[in-house]
Amino acid sequence: MKYSGRYLSLTREELLERVHAQMSEKRFVHVLGVEKAAIALAEQYGEDIEKASIAALVHDYCKERPDTDFQSYIDKQLYPEAISQFGNEIWHGLVGADIIHDELGIADSDILNAVRHHTTGSANMSLLEQIIYVADYIEEGRDFPGVEEARQKARTDLVEAVAYETQKTLTYLVEKGVPIYPKTIETYNVWVAHLS
Ligand code: GDP
Ligand code: FE
Ligand code: FE
Ligand code: FE
Fold first, then answer.
1. In ligand 1, which atom is closest to the CA atom of 27?
2. Residue 30 CA: which ligand 1 atom is closest?
3. Tens digits of per-residue pLDDT, 84-111?
């Protein structure tokens, strides 16, 4: 795909190189899977293909960063109090979006919010945010109980797919016995109304 230059001064090939340099081969393959799934959802539901591609390619840009990289942002910027009690799993999206803004020069707020909310979701997700949230969950490399049902829902109703993923993720985290980030619960409380 040829980028227009509207959202990013890099070509797709240059962006791929920058993203690849940040992560293991395995995660890079996941990122390419998310891009493929996100583009398919963008075509189906009428979102800008270029925004879907860029948001997908950068969504896990910070997943392999050391905690100290996030700590300097958390110290400097205004994030909710609770964020410091969590770790990379929560930071790589919520704080990662600001790192991506600074390091890749991406300023589009819809793309940044799609990165910001790809792990926790949020109460009000734009179409692009929903697409990245779902694409991250259903990309072709994912294999876990329920992924086929999630893929099926994504093919028929994106909102139902968001609700399903939100319920499954919260259930999984509770069963695992890990702390739930408040935003994850906020997301659940809104999207639970769309469970089918
Ligand atoms: P990935 O980056 O492609 O692996 O996927 P995500 O960014 O969606 O999720 C990263 C990790 O965060 C996964 O292991 C999720 O289960 C986990 N996660 C999602 N929400 C929460 C939460 O509220 N609390 C905690 N502790 N972990 C969460
Ligand atoms: Fe992620
Ligand atoms: Fe996710
Ligand atoms: Fe991911």
1. 3
2. 3
3. 999 999 999 999 999 999 999 999 999 9
Q: What is the predicted pLDDT for the residue at 52?
A: 99
pLDDT band, residue 184 (cuts 50/70/90):
very high
* Residue owning the nearest CA to atom 25 of ligand 1: 180
Report CA torsion sign: 130, 112, 27, 49: positive
What distance in Å separates the CA atoms of residue 59 and residue 115, rounded to the nearest whole number?
5
> Domain residues of the chain, as ranges?
12-143
- Asked if 3 contacts 44 with a C-beta cutoff of 8 angstroms, the reply is no
Contacts of 91 (CB under 8 A, 6+ apart): 62, 67, 70, 74, 83
The whole-number pLDDT of residue 77 equals: 83
pLDDT tens column, 9-21: 999 999 999 999 9
Would you give the DSSP letter of residue 179?
P
Q: Which ligand is nearest to the CA of 187?
A: 1
Q: In the structure encoding, which two tokens stand for residue 76, read together?
A: 């400097």
Pocket lining: 183 vs ligand 1, CB cutoff 6 Å: no
Atom of ligand 1 nearest to the CA of 137: 8
- Supply φ then ψ for residue 10, to 5 degrees: -95, 155
| CB distance 122 to ligand 1 below 6 Å | no
12-143: which CATH architecture? Orthogonal Bundle (1.10)
Looking at this predicted complex, what is its ipTM? Answer: 0.98
